[in-house]
Design brief:
The protein is of the alpha/beta class. It has helices at 13-19, 70-80, 83-95, 100-109, 116-125, 133-145, 195-211, 225-234; strands at residues 10-11, 31-35, 47-51, 59-62, 65-68, 151-158, 161-168, 175-178, 216-219. 36% of the residues lie in helices and 17% in strands. Helix 2 packs antiparallel against helix 3 (83-95) and helix 3 (83-95) crosses helix 5. It is elongated.
Length: 253
């Protein structure tokens, strides 16, 4: 497709995110391009053309294809995508070493002021410790419900050593782990991977964590947001249970 386009273009938005190796909440059905000028905007229904002028440092090359830089890509996405989808990319960016301050500064300098408030919110909530889009979704569900801001990779010192749980709070409430089905299948994660042995190790880990007095909640991709909220509240001691004030600035995913 790249070689078939005649007008000067740069791959952008979620299409650029994929080329950068970022996870996305939903696989895009169209290719996004930034062009200085247009050509047959309606000729290709699977292409979305954006009119903009890019600075030299906003263009990089990936596999021989001109692509918006990681910073420009993240900003384009958090300004145009629903907050959860944008948060997935912002989490990824911080996890790869991109600095939040740099993203916020680039957002402030952005000439296109549309959706700047939403973008700033998403960047503020981003956490580089998220290791999958579903972990981001779990955190988003808790934030939207009005829980205090959770953190990622919560350290727990146990008799078996220190473990890190996907989502939770320091010193109170349950710890939340996201379970993907793939880790319960033999040979999927690596050659010789033994799912039964992994279950045994996981059970010892869970028992050691619970022995510290912390509850552990496991969630999956099939779980409803309302169920996750209910389980977390149920496993939170009454004297620690927060009064939830649902956030209207975070729409239902």
């Amino acid at each position: 497709m790249h070689r078939q386009l005649t007008a000067h273009h740069v791959v952008s938005h979620e299409s650029a995110a994929l080329l950068h190796g970022a996870p996305v909440w939903e696989m895009p059905s169209r290719v996004h391009l930034i062009q200085r000028y247009g050509s047959n905007a309606g000729s290709a229904p699977d292409i979305v053309r954006h009119r903009s002028i890019l600075a030299d440092d906003e263009i990089v090359t990936v596999a021989g294809v001109p692509v918006t830089s990681v910073t420009r890509t993240v900003l384009d996405c958090v300004c145009t995508m629903p907050p959860l989808a944008g948060l997935v990319l912002a989490d990824w960016a911080l996890g790869t070493g991109v600095e939040r301050a740099g993203l916020l500064a680039a957002l402030a300098d952005r000439s296109d002021r549309r959706n700047r408030r939403q973008a700033r919110l998403v960047l503020d909530l981003a956490d580089g410790g998220a290791q999958s889009p579903w972990e981001t979704r779990t955190r988003y569900v808790l934030l939207r419900a009005g829980f205090p801001r959770p953190r990622t990779q919560v350290p727990v010192v146990t008799r078996l050593g220190t473990f890190h749980c996907d989502v939770g709070w320091d010193g109170w409430g349950p710890l939340i782990e996201f379970d993907g089905f793939v880790k319960y299948q033999d040979g999927v994660l690596r050659p010789g991977y033994d799912a039964d042995a992994a279950r045994f190790v996981e059970k010892r880990r869970d028992d050691a964590i619970r022995a510290t007095g912390r509850a552990l909640v496991r969630v999956t991709a099939r779980d409803k947001a309302s169920d996750i909220v209910r389980w977390v509240l149920r496993e939170t001691p009454a004297h620690q249970r927060p009064r939830l004030d649902p956030r209207l600035d975070l729409p239902e995913p």
